[in-house]
Amino acid sequence: MNxxxxxxxxxxxRWRNNVEAINGRWENTGWCDRVFRDLDIVPMExxxxxxxxxxxxxxEENIMxxxxxxHDTMAEEKLxxxxxxxxxxxxxxxxxxxxxxxxxxxxxxxxxxxxxLYLQSPVLQTLPNTRFFGAxxxxxxxxxxxxxxxxxxxxxxxxxxxFTKFRVLPNQNQKTRTYEFQDVTTIxxxxxxSDILGLKxxxxxxxxxxxxxxxxxxxIEGGEFEFLDQIPRDGPMDQKGISICQFNLEIHSKxxxxxxxxxxxxxxxxxxxRRYVFLRPARTEPGVHRMxxxxxxxxxxxxxxxx
Length: 307
Prior knowledge:
Elements: H1 2-13, H2 19-24, E1 42-45, E2 50-53, E3 62-67, H3 74-79, E4 82-83, H4 85-97, H5 100-105, H6 107-120, E5 123-124, E6 130-135, H7 142-146, E7 151-153, E8 156-158, E9 162-168, E10 180-188, H8 189-196, H9 202-206, E11 212-218, H10 236-240, E12 243-252, H11 259-273, E13 276-285, E14 288-295, H12 299-305
Parallel strand pairs: 3-6, 3-11, 6-7, 8-10, 11-12
Antiparallel strand pairs: 1-2, 4-5, 9-10, 12-14, 13-14
Domain Methyltransferase FkbM: 29-277
Organism: Caenorhabditis tropicalis
Pfam family, one: Methyltransf_21
């Protein structure tokens, strides 16, 4: 943590009180990934992006949460299997031969093809004791895709219960990847984790003492600003006693401009807390970028993933 802070602070401090800069130049923090160059961070690719994961070093039960399924579960499926090298190379070679436009047109067919190759290839179960939980307000095809290996919840995750206008990908738009703003049913973030997921019921019954999310992928097109302030120290998650060992986060201030300030404040609070490090920054377009957070404070997380 000290080495990471020593590297990252001079970069980020230049953006303090400069919301536009911190949202527009985030990829510059990638220089500090070198602090963790010996850490085995595994890419999990789907059709449109890469998620990052540190696989556990033990054979204990795992909880994986996806917020925003987005008509694509290739990365989750890969997370549960390590592909034989020749199959992985074949899939990547196919993707390289296709333009983005063709991939968009054939997204459903390409997903079926790669899933078939995954299932036909010899595999090693990397997370055989993992329970997958996914939430997305667009029911189909997300329910069908996610229910093949996990539990799907047909609602958005936000700050308050009720209806919230979220940017979503309707079923009829999955080929064009055209997003729309719609009023969707919303469940509070901490309520979803602690009550609906089962910290107070089913999961705790199966895994006594469970209060930890091992892996989370958060990509909800601007909805993340509803609950970013609940993650740092002494926030609602701490009050519920819930930890997240590692999570991918995609920021969408382009589609929710007030979120730029929320992200700015979130970054400096994370640095102040000294709980998480953020790695693998990537900017996909102005106002949209990704990062990977790793919890270095929680002793169970460190034991399970880093020792």
